[in-house]
Amino acid sequence: MSKLYVGNLPSDCNESALRQLFQEHSLACTTILVKRGGYAFVDCADQSTADRAIDKLNGYTYLGSSLVVEPSVASAAKKRTVSTYVDDNEASRVLIPSSIRYHKAVGTFLYHK
Questions:
Q1: Which residues are in the RRM domain (predicted)?
Q2: Per-position b or e across 2-32, b if 16+ CB within 10 A of its CB
């Protein structure tokens, strides 16, 4: 199963309307989850169907909105930036794994085996 992100949906778009759009383009989808904020996640039966959906619907004008259709990326896979600086006052309030320790002399966290 391949999951798609469908963005820039009109505010009045719901699950049945989006399902109908996919059916009109002969695209089989199993699950549609419409979220507030104008986006949805759609599960396609296979990668071939997902690729066809991207080709047919990405940039497609639907109820006055140009749709964005692309493969869904898991939130854990997205790049996140993490600040590694913690001053002495904050070090006691930070929850860290036991394999990582804060060293005041160095002023940073170090990994311990």
A1: 2-74
A2: bebebbebeeebeeeebbebbeeeebebeeb
pTM: 0.65
The CA radius of gyration of the chain, in Å to the nearest whole number, is 22
Give the C-alpha separation, 83 to 93, whole Å: 15
What whole-number distance in Å separates Cα of residue 28 and Cα of residue 106?
57
5: nearest Cα among 24, 20, 23, 18: 18
Domains of the chain: 2-71 (3.30.70.330)
User: Digits of tens for pLDDT over the chain (113 positions)?
Assistant: 799 999 999 999 999 999 999 999 999 999 999 998 899 999 999 999 999 999 999 999 999 999 999 999 876 555 555 545 555 555 556 565 666 666 666 666 565 55
Single-letter code of the amino acid located at 67 = L
